[in-house]
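Folded chain entry
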Amino acid sequence: MQKKLFVSEIKENTQVEDLFLVKEKNNAVTKNGKPYLALVLADRTGTVKGRVWEDAEKCGRLFSQGEIVRLKSNALLYQGELQLNIIAISRHAEVPVRLPDFLPSSPHDPVQSFSALIDMIAMIQDVHLARLLTAIFDDQQIAAAFRAAPAARSIHHDYLGGLLDHTVMVTRLALDISKYYPHVDRDMLIAGAVLHDIGKIYELSYENNFEYTDSGRLLGHIMLGVEIIDQKLQLIPDFPDDRAAVLKHLIVSHHGQYEFGSPKRPKMLEALLLSYLDDLDAKMYGLAHFIKKERRKDTRWTGFYRLFERYIYTGTFIDEQTIPPKADENPAE
């Protein structure tokens, strides 16, 4: 059984029988003290709440959070929100399934995006930095993970290929802005932009759901990224120590502030720029995603956005569908 009905297609007062990813699973109790199972079910188009009212404890033992389940349910509207009242549910044991059906994916072709990134790397004139980045992305295991990984578990670029999309955008911004700051080492800034989040290929798992790996929780992507760089630096014995230290400083300071998880604060122009560009792209994506989700026809304002602690005006927002297509352009130019 392959997936046929997606969350975005579910209508009120219909029977839903299909495959879904269990994004969240919690045991709960009604006001009358009866146990039930509260689920958040997902596919690439969104999420929907699910409730198991009968034999909740028994059903809960049949599957785990992060697994794909097969269910039969009735869709109804509860407090203005669609909800699936589940009649039958079980772990989906059949293989294979199409992972992109269950997890959100990049709207861009990963092959083209990765090629654009390689083109920008090719602009680096510093021989040592160029050799290092080539060594990293010639590693097929690293390259494959980099093309597939999300950039985050939530908030920004939290989809398959999100890490690549975020990195391409930050690198493009770095290339553009370096033109206006002649004191900036452009090669070092590009290298830092390309590598700033590379540790996320080991920080996050995305087999069925976006979760932190053990290494991700214990070390975090910043330290994991420095480890990747150190491993590849061993292949380049003549790499200057001072240049290696500067590059690693860009990685460990790119969150900008201690309270944002940065082991070090930026101590050079390139590091400061990178921290701003990383934050800019993350916030622009997160805000645009929030507007798309919250926008309503009867008002030009969203609900309260907790991340920014304010309401957001939507009157100037431009849909992708209304943006005129651009002629093919070389992102490295």
In short: The mean pLDDT is 89.
